[in-house]
Design a protein that fits this description.
Layout lengths: L11 E2 L2 E2 L1 H45 L10 H214 L8 H11 L8 H4 L13 E3 L6 E3 L17 E7 L2 E7 L8
Antiparallel strand pairs: 1-2, 3-4, 5-6
Helix pairs in contact: 1-2
Length: 384
């Protein structure tokens, strides 16, 4: 069996036939079997339809009444007989075709069944043989692999046991070191925490004492400021009362002095008025002038004292002579510094300084970087 050539031309591989070829052959046989079963099912359905149609025709023929050809003509009767014969022939032909088709389908199914059984038997036999060979080969390889695996596993187990012992010793040492370091760190953490707690308590106490001291200082400062404000208010009130009293006294003194001066002025005015009346009477008796004409200055003074007239103008403007008035002229004059003529202008075009006018003396005074001109007039002789 092992030396025989396989039916489908399989190539022998390491553990039997090539699996991909076997799978492709099985897939092709499965497809052929499925196609044959589909054909059988289609043919069976057609046969069933034809049998049902034949049964319907038979039932209709049995149920139909006998035709009456007597009412027809001879030609129609001949046509009817011919149609019946044709129908009978067609029915017989359909029955023969259905029987032949049924036989053919049955024979094809039997052949396919036999081929499938033979192929399955052959394939099963070959597969069993290949499986036995593969099983033996696999068992031998498995024994070798198991033995090698046992050796390797023993070596690995021994190495793992030694390494585990080393790791266990190292872990124990690391655990001891970790516990010692953990204890050291815990002790340091406790010391740091205690120091931080003490520092925090001291800082808290210091902050509390500072806050209380500042609160007390603020209260004292507030009381001091309030006392100072009260003292300032008291001093200010006393000073204000003193100033008011002093101002009242000064006002009383000024009022008394003004009243005295007013009384003295009234007395002097009365005396002067009597003297003037005497002078006017004397002048009237000497010159014969009208009585009551007085000088304008005295009349203005009397009106100002009575308060029923406006104040008199200043003597300078009222009694200024004509020759002292400002001369407005278009004549050109010469600048004092540049000797340029400045026709009809009060300043020189070049130097910007005031020019001289006829009848005026110009004096320059320095005010920073600017020069201002001050006109000084000659005062004419007079009683003032």
């Amino acid at each position: 069996m092992s030396d025989a050539v396989p039916q489908h031309g399989f190539t022998q591989a390491r553990r039997g036939y090539a699996p991909d070829q076997v799978e492709r052959a099985l897939a092709a046989l499965t497809a052929q079997r499925d196609e044959a079963w589909e054909r059988l099912s289609v043919l069976g359905a057609g046969i069933r339809q034809m049998e049902a149609r034949l049964a319907d025709i038979r039932r209709a023929a049995e149920e139909a009444p006998e035709p009456d050809y007597e009412v027809l003509s001879e030609q129609a009767a001949g046509l009817a007989a011919m149609a019946q014969n044709e129908a009978r022939a067609v029915r017989e032909k359909a029955e023969r075709f259905s029987e032949d088709l049924r036989d053919e389908v049955y024979e094809a199914g039997q052949a396919l069944d036999r081929a499938a059984k033979e192929y399955s038997t052959t394939t099963r036999t070959e597969a069993d043989a290949a499986a036995r060979r593969t099983d033996e080969r696999t068992r031998a390889e498995a024994e070798g692999i198991r033995a090698e695996a046992d050796r390797e596993s023993r070596a690995v187990r021994d190495a793992a046991t030694a390494y585990a012992a080393k790791v266990r010793v190292a872990a124990a040492e690391a655990g001891e070191q970790a516990e010692a370091e953990l204890a050291t760190r815990r002790r340091r953490a406790d010391e740091d925490f205690a120091a931080a707690q003490a520092a925090a308590d001291a800082e808290d106490a210091e902050v509390s004492a500072t806050a209380e001291r500042r609160v007390k200082e603020a209260e004292q400062h507030r009381e001091t400021v309030l006392n100072r404000i009260k003292q300032l208010e008291t001093d200010a009130q006393a000073k204000a009362d003193q100033l008011v009293e002093q101002a009242r006294r000064e006002a009383e003194k000024i009022n008394a002095a003004s009243e005295r001066e007013q009384a003295e002025f009234d007395i002097r005015l009365e005396t002067v008025q009597q003297h003037l009346d005497h002078i006017k009477a004397t002048l009237a008796s000497l010159t014969g002038a009208a009585v009551g004409q007085i000088e304008p200055g005295l009349a203005a003074a009397a009106a100002a004292r009575r308060g029923d007239a406006a104040p008199a103008p200043a003597p300078w403007t009222r009694l200024r002579p004509r020759w002292m008035r400002a001369r407005r002229t278009r004549s050109s004059t010469r600048c004092r510094w540049t000797r340029r003529r400045t026709p009809g202008r009060s300043r020189c075009r070049r130097c910007g300084r005031l020019r001289l006018r006829p009848g005026l003396r110009v004096a320059l005074r320095c005010r920073g970087r600017r020069w201002s001109a001050v006109a000084r007039r000659r005062r004419p002789p007079g009683p003032w």
